[in-house]
Design brief:
3-stranded antiparallel β-sheet; 9 strands; globular; alpha+beta; 4 helices
Length: about 250
């Protein structure tokens, strides 16, 4: 069932700015991780889809109703797009795709306001930088421990009840930008549990880059910690054919 609610004051400001000419990707939040080892792309896509099913913010779009912008939550089951690109032996294409991913604007009227792109076969790199000055460790194996806050166990949706003065973020509060314009935010600790184990993987040992981009109107810095933690747990559960403990 489709659900709509008013925007928070912070979302209202972001929506207003987004209507200006040239706003484009100014509020894209892009995270980048370099992954080492075997990777199961099917399990990763299912983990992203399950993440979107869990969080209303990842199914939210902004539309104008009766002359006022409102947030509309689409029902679960629409998925979380994750495009896979094999860039083996093409470093120039790798750099261009990273740049384009950070700069591609979202249409706020179309959900989801989030996307992922997996670049496979990128080769060994000393570090990953997307946008201005954001460096991500080359050892960002998706199984390292990620810092979490105690309240991260409680997913946040679009506001709290009908009042909807809470922004529709994956976590709480989106008043302060987590990134710098169209550049990538420093990804910090990678998602726990996202290292691949087992014998049958779509992509064998190698180096890959995972890019995750979300619009700031539904996402903030605290939300990032929750998203990455749950993505890791969901991916690990997919690999082991179990249910994630969330």
């Amino acid at each position: 069932m489709r659900v709509s609610a008013p925007l928070s004051s912070g979302q209202q400001r972001l929506w207003t700015v987004s209507q200006l000419d040239g706003a484009g990707p100014a509020y894209n939040e892009t995270m980048a991780f370099e992954l080492r080892g075997p990777l199961d792309c099917g399990a990763l896509q299912r983990a992203f889809d399950a993440l979107a099913d869990r969080h209303e913010a990842l199914r939210t779009r902004i539309v104008v109703e009766d002359g006022r912008p409102v947030q509309v939550v689409e029902p679960a089951g629409n998925g979380f797009p994750c495009v896979v690109c094999d860039v083996t032996g093409r470093p120039e294409e790798t750099a261009e795709l990273r740049r384009r991913e950070a700069l591609a604007p979202f249409d706020l009227a179309r959900a989801p306001l989030a996307r992922a792109r997996l670049l496979v076969g990128v080769g060994v790199q000393a570090g990953v930088a997307v946008g201005a000055g954001a460096e991500v460790s080359a050892e960002a194996r998706l199984g390292a421990a990620a810092e979490t806050r105690p309240e991260a166990e409680v997913p946040a949706g679009v506001g709290a009840g009908a009042g909807a003065e809470v922004p529709a973020g994956v976590g709480a509060g989106a008043e302060t930008r987590a990134g710098a314009g169209a550049g990538a935010a420093d990804a910090g600790a990678p998602p726990p549990g996202l290292h691949a184990t087992g014998d049958h993987r779509q992509f064998p040992d190698g180096h890959h880059i995972l890019l995750i981009t979300v619009h700031h109107i539904v996402f903030d810095g605290w939300s990032r910690t929750l998203l990455l933690r749950e993505l890791g747990l969901l991916y690990a559960a997919e690999l082991n054919h179990t249910t994630a403990d969330l």
